[in-house]
Amino acid sequence: MSNTRSRGENVSPANEQVTASDARRSVAALLERGRTMTTPVLRAAVDRLAPPMNTVAAYHFGWIDATGRPADGSGGKAVRPALALLSAEVAGAEPEVGIPGAVAVELVHNFSLLHDDLMDGDEQRRHRDTVWKVHGPAQAILVGDALFALANELLLEQGTTDGGRATQRLTVATRKLIDGQAQDISFEHRERVTVEECLEMEGNKTGALIACACSIGAVLGGADDATADALERYGYHLGLAFQAVDDLLGIWGEPSVTGKQTWSDLRQRKKSLPVVAALAAEGPAAERLGELLAADAKNTEIGEFSEEEFANRAALIEEAGGREWTSQEARRQHATALEALNGVYMPEETRRNLLALADFVVVREK
User: Fold this and answer.
1) What is the CATH number of the domain that holds 64?
2) What transmembrane ranges does the database entry give (predicted)?
3) Which of 61, 176, 272, 361 is the residue whose CA sits 20 to 30 A from 240?
């Protein structure tokens, strides 16, 4: 299905403004719609897994607690499912058409979280113990692998050419995501990482899958490759904005809101954007930070540092300008994402919703 004006759709410019209150209501409704429409299909997919993987996955998604009793965990922000459903609407299809893509992307995203938590040694996610902490490393690995397999299974079950196109895009995005995680891990043991290297890593680790979410519903709805590619560009830069905000929260986020430890990314030696931007700056704060990180590269006992030491490092990053640069980068990537929508014809309401979700990404607190 070619995405052209011939369908008689209303079109609005990409820079159309909506009020802050309208945007908040719109985003809340979009996230809830994404969660409501995809959760039953997601649960049914998880039910296909053999025990105990099905219950381990259910714990990860927040549906049960560590003892197996029902729980009311949200399972995340549901940004990717919301984008996938909107993507279907760009193609002129009903949002339901995007459900298999939304669920597939969510399965891949959670496959990466299960593995990342184990590799990073994260003990908390969404205000509770991570899967590897509760059920052991082996189950975290197995369930992650199973979720990835389920994602491809769901798309291929569509039995259509468009289902195959969607599977191909998801597979490429997954490979890039894994590339990004490998880059992220390698950066932890290097004294210096350039800003360009960090953006490439984050584009792979975060941008690729959000880009896929933004195109996969349109592909399932029959959109041509030019439309899907434009939506992927929107999603890629939105993903970079998303990750820039995540990097800020990883250092300065409020634990009661983020569900992670104070100074979370500093504890893991992450060369995130605020860190690499600070190191690239000039001045005594950047020099002192560089000295500390050079010493870290030879020290495997970073977990023994005091809270005061982490607070000092965060202060050095801020003094060197890393915090402000990253905040500005989030806004730059946000603007680039919106530019990608220029020339893509879609219903006026769908465009407003894509703009509102992009705004949400750069102002969130968790």
Assistant:
1) 1.10.600.10
2) none
3) 61
Exposure b/e, 166-181, CB count within 10 A at least 16 = b:
bbebbbebbebbbbbb
In whole angstroms, how far apart are CA 201 and each of 119, 138, 198, 265, 289?
A: 16, 27, 5, 15, 22
Q: Give all strands (DSSP E) within 56-117, no chain letters.
A: none
In a domain, 138, yes or no: yes
Contact predicate 338/15, CB 8 Å: yes
Q: Give the DSSP per-residue string, 340-354.
A: HTTT----HHHHHHH
- In Å, how far from its chain's centre is CA 95? 21
CB distance 297 to 189 below 8 Å: yes
Alpha-helical segments (H) within 121-194:
131-135, 137-156, 161-187
Structure tokens, 3: 């995405």
* pLDDT mean by block of 10 residues, the chain; 366 residues: 36 47 82 96 97 97 95 82 98 97 98 95 88 98 98 97 98 98 87 92 97 98 97 98 95 81 83 95 95 80 76 96 97 97 94 94 81
